[in-house]
Design goal:
Layout lengths: L1 E4 H6 L1 H11 L2 E5 L2 E6 L5 H10 L2 H15 L6 H13 L4
Parallel strand pairs: 1-2
Antiparallel strand pairs: 2-3
């Protein structure tokens, strides 16, 4: 992993993109503090995973789900898979 100041990355973005593809993530700093990471996805699925991992909406859903489970309102594994099966067997309207 490489660390580079923002000014350098701005001046040589193409070179840093190439390095991210071949050498791995680059931490971008401003005034010595990390402000961004340049990551080259390996494929479309990797890109989707990276984007979802940072999605505020998905994080809110996961937080709500965890709280629900902790409050005893979650489904058992069997109940979950039965609900999935029931949903997949219903004809679409």
């Amino acid at each position: 992993m490489k660390i580079a100041p923002l000014a350098d990355v701005k001046a040589q973005l193409s070179a840093y993109v190439e390095q991210a593809q071949t050498e791995g993530p680059i931490v971008i700093t401003r005034n010595g503090k990390a402000v961004a990471v340049l990551i080259a996805p390996t494929d479309d699925e990797d890109l989707e995973n990276l984007l979802l991992a940072r999605s505020p909406r998905l994080q809110a859903i996961l937080t709500q789900s965890r709280q629900s489970i902790q409050a005893g309102k979650g489904l058992t594994a069997d109940a979950f898979w039965n609900a999935v099966k029931d949903h997949s067997e219903k004809p679409e309207s």
